[in-house]
Amino acid sequence: MLEIRNVTKVFNPGTVNEKVALNDFSLTLEEGDFVTVIGGNGAGKSTMMNAIAGVWPVDAGQILIDGVDVTKLSEHKRAKYLGRVFQDPMTGTAATMGIDENLALAKRRGKFRSLKGGTSKKEREEYKELLKILGLGLEDRLTSKVGLLSGGQRQALTLLMATLVKPKLLLLDEHTAALDPKTAAKVLETTEVIVNRDHLTTLMITHNMKDAIAHGNRLIMMHEGRVIYDVRGEEKKNLHVSDLLKKFEEVSGGEFANDRMMLTN
User: Fold this and answer.
1) Dist. CA 33–CA 36, nearest whole Å
2) Is pLDDT at 41 greater than 90 in this prediction?
3) How far apart are CA 61 and CA 191, in angstroms?
4) 110: domain CATH number?
5) Which label site among 121, 161, 200, 224 has the fewest CB atoms less than 10 Å from its CB?
């Protein structure tokens, strides 16, 4: 479903601030893979996700989604293949529009959108059923402005919107990092339900090693723009945080230097 072939991305080339963010990076995801991604600061995690989304062009290599070469496609042309949830709960929703209007926009992703306003009764009934999966009571607040929701409610809604039209690939960029632990756990639980229900191919960057082990069928660790560890199945299920720290030290030759990750494990 996703093939990243020998992708390189260098920021500020030829200057004192030159940074090799992706270094001949390759990764393949099969349909239905749920891959968690961890790594220290500057490992290239978000750069990889932005490369897939087409936020900027890569310097070398290829990116294919479901067999389609999207390497040279602009960000908006790739959007029809992707669902994405960002770290900031304020990103991904229109604050001045109602919950139902936000869902209506998401439902029309990749399709022709006319100037005809409003949502039909049938649509609203459909949205109510969809919102029930979140367990947040939002199905009774369809016309509430999204800007009035809490960060956790907005993030849960954004997740629903990103998956309303089944994407080829779901990108979760530390989507629980800005939430309190209880709300983060709820959003992760909902993520797991939706991903499993719709058999979504998913990449989830997380700063929490426990979450990386607990969720998904595969885990990759990045360092200096490359994958340094790739584990799946039963081996992944049996991992402990201490195993990941030890593996990082073995492969990279240094200690895992990310205070935020250390504090949340």
Assistant:
1) 10
2) no
3) 31
4) 3.40.50.300
5) 121
d(CA 52, CA 62): 10
Asked if 168 and 82 count as a contact pair (C-beta separation under 8 A), the reply is yes
Q: DSSP for 7-24? A: EEEEESTTSTT-EEEEEE
Instruction: Give the chain's end-to-end CA distance (angstroms, integer).
Output: 31
> What pLDDT is attached to residue 97?
92
Q: pLDDT at position 54, please?
A: 95
pTM value > 0.85? yes
- β-strand pairing of 169-173 with 218-223: unpaired
At 173, is the pLDDT very low, low, confident or very high (cuts 50, 70, 90)?
very high
Nearest to 154 by CA among 136, 127, 129, 133: 136
Please report, for residues 24, 136, 196, 201, the alpha-carbon distance to residue 1 in angstroms, rounded to integers and kept in the order given: 20, 32, 16, 7
Number of domain units in the chain: 1
Residue 231 confidence (pLDDT): 96
Query: Which residues, other chains included, contact 75 with Cβ-Cβ below 8 Å and sequence gap of 6+?
Result: 53, 54, 55
Return d(Cα 34, Cα 201) in angstroms, integer: 6
